Amino acid sequence: MNLRQVFVSVLMFGVAGLLLFMYLQVWIEEQHTESGEKLQQQIINQDFTLPTLGMPRGAEWSKSTVPGLSKHEMAILGSRHWRGKADPFGVVATSLVSKLSDQQRMSESPLNWLRGVYLPPALHPLNKTLVKDGKWKDVDSTQEKRRSFLHDFCKKYNSRKKLQTHLLHMVSRIYVEDRHKVLYCEVPKAGCSNWKRVLMVLNGLATSAHNISHDDVHYGKHLRKLDSYDLNGIYTRLNTYTKTIFVRDPMERLVSAFRDKFEHPNSYYHPVFGKAIIKKYRHDANEEALKTGSGVRFKEFIQYLLDSHRPVGMDIHWEQVSKLCYPCLINYDFIGKFETLEEDANYFLRLVGAPAELKFPKFKDRHSSDERTSAEVVRQYLKELSKEERQLIYNFYYLDYLMFNYTSPTV
């Protein structure tokens, strides 16, 4: 056999080996995917929730069995502490995740197996033992109506659709204050800066909300978010802390975000969002606008918002609340509104036992000389849009309008 024949033989053997390796790799991946899909379907199909709310009746917990759970875990679920409570991310899901093989855990994050679980919350009574006077009667009545409205909406909505998301993403906007056991889901342009100041005071990081600068609030990293804890830490806090969310009329919040980020100098939003928006939606853009990204018009901003092929991604300042805080998956105990911010916030502080002298700040965080974004201001901006565009904005925030019982705008 000459040298050429040896070379050809070695080459053919190498090609055959490569093909065999590729075939085995595909086969292994198919087996892994199939087992993963079966496990995920098992999690989705578990019947461990109350009728209409997703879990078995509280009195039946100790008699029910969940495949894959030990007697000890079932004893925990059957205890008085758990009866009647939703189990959004705790014993059941954690135990099922723990049954994954080492190979599956190494190849994919265990949190991915929580996707698709149908876990609507239960509505629990709000703890009012720390409220000593009767001056909050009207605020409390409004609060109960909001809670009931959202709960009824979520029952109806979740009965038709299973919301899917990862656990860490679901809680990534929630700030934690351990001293008073508070969880606050941040909704930008709905009083979030002052709320974070209040959380810092509650946590002993400052003596007064008025002494905390804008940069300390947003860039100081003084407050922990819920996604920084392990699964047990997340679950424990979700089930034992008082959870609050403060929302705002979607159209007002949108206009407020535009005014804040695009009508004032901004070293991030102009070069990142402004340049991309102007480049795609302004056909007569001059060199200066393309270079700096300054001067975005409201109509251009709306074109970007409604574009299914946006030149740059979404941002939390105009993202839907339904995608920031997941109100139909997380059982918020208190629903505040920007329209009644001061009274709602101060009532909430009394509920969680905050110091009597702590009041929610009234000051405007930035651009204090600007007129606040009111319904009248919004009307002026909407005049720049066509009727179709106004309708599409409403469609975009449709869930937020429904969840929090906001009146649809005149379009």
What does this protein structure show overall?
There is one protein chain. The longest helix has 43 residues, at 3-45. This protein is 48% helix and 5% strand. Residues 28-120 have low confidence and may be disordered. The N and C termini lie far apart (86 Å). The chain has 411 residues and is mainly alpha-helical. It has 18 helices and 5 strands. It has helices at residues 3-45, 71-78, 91-98, 102-107, 137-158, 167-170, 192-202, 214-219, 231-240, 250-262, 269-281, 287-292, 298-306, 321-324, 341-351, 375-382, 387-396, 398-403, and strands at 174-177, 182-185, 224-225, 242-247, 334-337. Strands 3-1-2-4-5 form a 5-stranded mixed beta sheet, sandwiched between helices.
Helicity, as a percent range: 40-55%
- How many individual helices? 18
Question: Strand portion, in percent?
Answer: under 5%
Provide mean pLDDT, rounded: 76
Largest sheet: 5 strands, mixed
> Judging from the principal axes of the Cα atoms, what is the shape?
globular
Radius of gyration: 26 Å
Write down how many β-strands occur, each being a DSSP E stretch of 2 or more residues. Answer: 5
Separation of the first and last Cα atoms? 86 Å
Order of helices and strands: HHHHHHEEHHEHEHHHHHEHHHH
Structural class by SSE content: mainly alpha
* Arrangement of strands in the largest sheet: 3-1-2-4-5
Unreliable runs, pLDDT <50, ≥5 residues? 28-120
